[in-house]
């Protein structure tokens, strides 16, 4: 899969450069953050292509968001100006999505997700929401 020369294309790139999040993935990230903003930390709505979240991971994510002390909101389009992806090798990318809150706008919180390429498309594995 390829992107245009600037890395802003619709598909992810497999190289050593930090790049913008591929457009083909953005709707999935919107769905993930929408669920988190509505306190659905285990993504019970079962978003296609997203791996299930364990009870323990959901508790960590909730704790990190609550201890941050601001109200998470759905992703605005501006999030793609600062969020990024990096090829990890094998068949996966690490993606960091900047999160937004009512109080701060773009916050210090980020969503860390590995995206795995499979024969049937992409699988999203959420690792954490945290403040780097």
Mind telling me the C-alpha Rg? 14 Å
Show unreliable segments.
Answer: 1-8
The percent range for helix content is: 10-25%
Strand segment tally: 5
**Number of helical regions:** 2
Distance between the termini: 30 Å
The geometry reads as globular
- The overall average pLDDT, rounded, is 91
Assembly status: single chain
Beta-strand content bin: 25-35%
Instruction: Write the element-wise H/E pattern from the N-terminal end onward.
Output: HHEEEEE
Could you say which structural class the secondary elements and strand pairing correspond to?
alpha+beta
Describe this structure in words.
It is a single chain. The protein is of the alpha+beta class. Helices cover 20% and strands 32% of the residues. The protein has helices spanning 26-37, 55-68, and strands spanning 72-73, 84-89, 92-101, 105-118, 121-130. Strands 1, 2, 3, 4 and 5 form a 5-stranded antiparallel sheet that branches. The protein starts with 25 loop residues before the first helix and ends with a strand.
């Amino acid at each position: 899969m390829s992107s245009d020369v600037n890395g802003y294309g619709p598909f992810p790139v497999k190289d050593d450069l930090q790049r913008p999040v591929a457009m083909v993935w953005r709707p999935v990230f919107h769905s993930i953050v929408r669920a988190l903003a509505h306190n659905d930390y285990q993504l019970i709505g079962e978003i296609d292509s997203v791996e299930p979240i364990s009870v323990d991971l959901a508790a960590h994510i909730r704790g990190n968001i609550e201890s941050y002390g601001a109200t998470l909101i759905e992703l605005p389009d501006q999030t793609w100006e600062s969020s990024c992806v990096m090829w990890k090798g094998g068949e996966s990318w690490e993606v960091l999505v900047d999160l937004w809150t009512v109080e701060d706008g773009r916050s210090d919180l980020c969503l860390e997700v590995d995206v795995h390429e499979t024969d049937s498309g992409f699988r999203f594995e959420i690792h954490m929401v945290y403040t780097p």
